[in-house]
Amino acid sequence: MNEIRDVIIIGSGPAGYTAAIYLGRAGLRPLVIAGALTPGGQLVNTTEVENFPGFPDGVLGPDLMESMQRQAERFDAELVYDDVESVELDETVKTVRCSGGDVYRARAIVVATGSYYRHLDVPGEEEYAGRGVSYCATCDGFFFRGKPIVVVGGGDSAMEEAGFLSRFGSSVTLLHRRDQFRASRIMVDRTLANPAIDVMMNTVVTGINGDGRAVTSVGVRDVSTGEQRELDANGVFIAAGQIPQTAFLGGALALDDHGYIIVDGASTRTNVPGVFAAGDCADPVYQQAISAAGTGCRAAIDVQMYLESLAEEAGD
């Protein structure tokens, strides 16, 4: 509690580790509060990553995160495996309280807690995650070339994913639980005009079925008639939205209507001086590992400039 650090990074995905690498190389010895259960973010639950530059043959998500972690530690980043419970950000020296009882203080904070995919919570979803169930079309669509695909959702992201997947699948069926889409009109029109996409309204998923190795079908129910049936599917893409992990902030930072941290333009500066946000927790649009890593770099540079300004104000 008595030690005042230069910078604390909350989160350990591509954004957090990249910020740690840059800040470590700057000699700032960042503290990374990596999380108690899932350090490394969503990529630790991802199998093959083929679109991260520098890996022409692809890389397993956990391996990529382990490499980033080792690189951060090489430059003297200190990792703590705990969850942040609350923060106090109003003063020049910020306070971070963890679930395990430890309290840390720093002049600058980088929030890189990411987001998590909204799940359907139906039988088979967890069992076949990474084996047919996916939450990212741009990550996994290629693996389902020539195979039947189901997309679940009714917003713009679901429409975008269905359109993208129509390049690969032998068929694409879009399921939506209501009788009207939440997506913008232009996205709905584009989807309905795509001959490769079948649309089923008033339809919910009841279960995801497989042979123990991969997905083979999806159980669905018509909410109007109660009729149940199975759809052939090898790929199930769930596009029900994402939830940014910002609840622990307790209103300490400005958030948008969906809970994402608001940053100043192309920077990572938040509305609180000395607090910066990087990765998916501040990015409702792109949600990719490479874009998260890029903002982690930006956050590190923004932190360095902020700390330099503090030193100048103090006359150092």
From TrEMBL:
PROSITE patterns: PYRIDINE_REDOX_2 (PS00573)
EC supergroup of this enzyme: oxidoreductase
GO cellular component annotations of the record: cytoplasm
Molecular function terms from GO: thioredoxin-disulfide reductase (NADPH) activity
Named cofactor requirement(s): FAD
A Pfam entry, by short name: Pyr_redox_2
Top-level lineage group: Bacteria
Coiled coil feature spans: none
InterPro entries recorded: FAD/NAD-bd_sf (IPR036188), FAD/NAD-binding_dom (IPR023753), Ferredoxin-NADP_redctase_2 (IPR050097), Pyr_nucl-diS_OxRdtase_2_AS (IPR008255), Thioredox_Rdtase (IPR005982)
Residue ranges of domain FAD/NAD(P)-binding in the record: 6-296
Cofactor-binding details, from the entry: Binds 1 FAD per subunit.
UniProt entry keywords in alphabetical sequence: Disulfide bond, FAD, Flavoprotein, NADP, Oxidoreductase, Redox-active center
EC assignment: 1.8.1.9
Gene Ontology biological process terms in this record: removal of superoxide radicals
TM segment ranges: none
Catalytic reaction annotation: [thioredoxin]-dithiol + NADP(+) = [thioredoxin]-disulfide + NADPH + H(+)
Family: Belongs to the class-II pyridine nucleotide-disulfide oxidoreductase family.
Record note on quaternary structure: Homodimer.
PANTHER family documented for this protein: THIOREDOXIN REDUCTASE 1-RELATED-RELATED (PTHR48105)
Entry protein name: Thioredoxin reductase
Organism: Bifidobacterium italicum
